[in-house]
Amino acid sequence: MNSSSNSVSPEAGRLSAAGSSPDGQNPAAQSPTVSRSSGSRSTGWRRPGWRFSGRLPAGQVPAGRLPVRRGWAARRPATQVSAGRWPAGQTATGRRPTGQSLAGQSPAGQSPAGQSPAGRWSAGRLPAGRAAGPAARRDARGTSGRGSAGRGAPNKGAPNKGVPGKGTSNKVASNRGSSNQSASDRGPRGDGLHWLRLAVWAALALLVLLPLGVILVRGAQPANADVLTDPYVLAAAWNSVSSAAGSAALATAFGALLAVVLDRTDLPGRTVLRWILLLPFLIPPFIGAMSWMALLSPAGTVNQTLMALTGSARPLLDIYGGGGVVFLLAVHSYPLAYLVISAALRRVPGSLEEAARISGAGGLRTFCQVTLPLVRPAVVAAFVLTLVANLSDFGIPALIGLPERYTTLTTLVYRYLASGTVTNPLPAVAAIGVVLLVLGLAAVLLQRRLPGGSELGGSGAAALPLQLGSARWVVAALLWCTAAVVCVLPLLALTEQALLPAPGVPLTWENLTLANIARALTSGGALTGIANSVLLALGAALACGVLGLAVGALLTRSKHRSNTALDVTAMLPQALPGLVLAVAWLLIAPALGIFNTPWVILGAYVMAFLALVVQSVRAPLESVPVSLDEAARISGAGPLRALGDVALRLSVPAAVSGAVVVALTAVRELTISILLVAPGSQTLGVVIFNLQQAGDYNSASALALLVTIVGVAGLSATAALGARRTARTRFRKGK
């Protein structure tokens, strides 16, 4: 190539955005930027008849570029739409009437987002006639497009709102330093996202902040000090803490063992065994307590069999008392510990274990010195979660502990409200609620101070399973026996009691009957409870689905200084005992005019189960590419519409799954309902509990069996669909 090629000045490569050109004039003619030596070929972009060296002749558009005479960036007539759109009268793919904007088909001079006249603030754009500085233009590219301003052309078209009339022009603002602010700050205070955030905060203030604030104020009164020093309250507090801590320790140890054996070994039949061992997680604790009562009570199947075999006149096993409470709490909470620890084990990079193996460490040593230290935060988190869950349980201490006068804080509050032993129970209940609130917050703060496990990248090769060798069949037999005793036998005992006419009747084909199920389904109290539970569950699912999706969208798709507080406010009720939530709504219900109505139960349900939907939609919302939002914004959509048409629409299936989990959980809930129930508003869980307390064990078992079947089937189907959706998403991403 000839060395005497075209020499281009530094200004040649700049597009005509920095300056303005009158109509019909070629900017290149005003400031020559290209010098050409004779006999050399131009290195610029060529077309017959003219040459391109960074600027275009007037009226010609190469490959989708704008005409130079129209102006491209900051200085452009006020009647044209900025944010990267085409001049009035032209589109990217065709022609449209002059005077209409690209996105909203609004008259020239009006912004399509908000239909506001030119010269007004709209969706983060600058008013007509004001120039955006370089920093402002850079900020605007990521949000609402490039700022439009500049020296306007005469308004010769149709009359526009807010645009000077014919023969007038807009002057360029000289103060560019004042425009160096972010695009979100330049946007209006009343845009869509702003109002959405205000609506979400208003809902959370009513559903979360107000109840917790009232219980803190009412329970922390100096006059309630006598309640907290009462011997019965102290004994109940000790029983609550000891049973919750002991059961959490057992559940965490067994859950960690299951996570290692089922997920990191070559155990045969792991899939079916995992589903069976997770059954207690799908069954309400109070129904599980009823199952174990049918199995190990003095008149239960096991005791009757052992008494016949040994000739003993007294039962050999007894499920009632403090030991039974700890055992059953551990049985119904170990699946939670398993899920938390198993998720952490799957995130351990296989490359670390491979490095240890290459260095000469065996499988067991690698697991103990590499894997276990990485999942230690998950083990502690599982202990804290099970501790909080067991601390707030009501069904197991009420059915298993109260017959032996083993009282916890939850059963003590129920006795205060139901028996009338206290003249004014609300201050005492509020004081006990504050104690549980403090214990729950302490557990949450302890968990948040733990390492977050960010070193678990989840990338690299999958970890090699531990080889059990000849012991794999022995371990499999032990686990199958454990699953049969812990998960299957109690359900069989519940089924037996539901199909027999009365307790103690021998199990024979002649004695089996469906009369209990028919009587339970046709009684007035059962029908009312079923109707109330279904309506409340559907209402809670709908409210939690909408509000949870909005909270998740604001947390993952926007950057705001209130996001941390919003996250803590939405997730805090999940970490608090259900008794605290029930007491809080019991205190504010008279002021809101919903005392002794189903509305107070609905409010408590939404407060308790909102976090389930937020957790369900968080990951799908984070996986939506930001480029889709940017494409919607460039096409003319406002912030709220871009959020709704892109991210929210793609996350609706996850929100529906979370709402289904909320409905299936709320329809069998007992702890909140038993404290807020009123005449005519009893739920299905309360009906079953009342039948059990009244001695109608067979009818209670029949209803409990139906609830168990529906709950297990529904939650299993929801989990399977969620797993399929996750696997499909990972397959599309190539993971």
TrEMBL record:
<feature type="transmembrane region" description="Helical">
    <location>
        <begin position="594"/>
        <end position="614"/>
    </location>
</feature>
<feature type="transmembrane region" description="Helical">
    <location>
        <begin position="703"/>
        <end position="723"/>
    </location>
</feature>
<keyword id="KW-1003">Cell membrane</keyword>
<feature type="transmembrane region" description="Helical">
    <location>
        <begin position="426"/>
        <end position="446"/>
    </location>
</feature>
<feature type="transmembrane region" description="Helical">
    <location>
        <begin position="379"/>
        <end position="400"/>
    </location>
</feature>
<feature type="transmembrane region" description="Helical">
    <location>
        <begin position="275"/>
        <end position="299"/>
    </location>
</feature>
<protein>
    <submittedName>
        <fullName>Iron ABC transporter permease</fullName>
    </submittedName>
</protein>
<feature type="transmembrane region" description="Helical">
    <location>
        <begin position="534"/>
        <end position="556"/>
    </location>
</feature>
<feature type="compositionally biased region" description="Low complexity">
    <location>
        <begin position="123"/>
        <end position="135"/>
    </location>
</feature>
<feature type="transmembrane region" description="Helical">
    <location>
        <begin position="670"/>
        <end position="691"/>
    </location>
</feature>
<keyword id="KW-0997">Cell inner membrane</keyword>
<feature type="transmembrane region" description="Helical">
    <location>
        <begin position="237"/>
        <end position="263"/>
    </location>
</feature>
<keyword id="KW-1133">Transmembrane helix</keyword>
<comment type="similarity">
    <text>Belongs to the binding-protein-dependent transport system permease family.</text>
</comment>
<feature type="compositionally biased region" description="Polar residues">
    <location>
        <begin position="18"/>
        <end position="30"/>
    </location>
</feature>
<feature type="domain" description="ABC transmembrane type-1">
    <location>
        <begin position="237"/>
        <end position="447"/>
    </location>
</feature>
<feature type="compositionally biased region" description="Low complexity">
    <location>
        <begin position="31"/>
        <end position="51"/>
    </location>
</feature>
<feature type="transmembrane region" description="Helical">
    <location>
        <begin position="195"/>
        <end position="217"/>
    </location>
</feature>
<feature type="transmembrane region" description="Helical">
    <location>
        <begin position="568"/>
        <end position="588"/>
    </location>
</feature>
<dbReference type="InterPro" id="IPR035906">
    <property type="entry name" value="MetI-like_sf"/>
</dbReference>
<dbReference type="Pfam" id="PF00528">
    <property type="entry name" value="BPD_transp_1"/>
</dbReference>
<keyword id="KW-0472">Membrane</keyword>
<feature type="compositionally biased region" description="Polar residues">
    <location>
        <begin position="167"/>
        <end position="184"/>
    </location>
</feature>
<feature type="compositionally biased region" description="Polar residues">
    <location>
        <begin position="90"/>
        <end position="114"/>
    </location>
</feature>
<dbReference type="InterPro" id="IPR000515">
    <property type="entry name" value="MetI-like"/>
</dbReference>
<feature type="transmembrane region" description="Helical">
    <location>
        <begin position="473"/>
        <end position="493"/>
    </location>
</feature>
<feature type="domain" description="ABC transmembrane type-1">
    <location>
        <begin position="530"/>
        <end position="718"/>
    </location>
</feature>
<keyword id="KW-0813">Transport</keyword>
<feature type="transmembrane region" description="Helical">
    <location>
        <begin position="319"/>
        <end position="341"/>
    </location>
</feature>
<keyword id="KW-0812">Transmembrane</keyword>
<feature type="region of interest" description="Disordered">
    <location>
        <begin position="1"/>
        <end position="188"/>
    </location>
</feature>
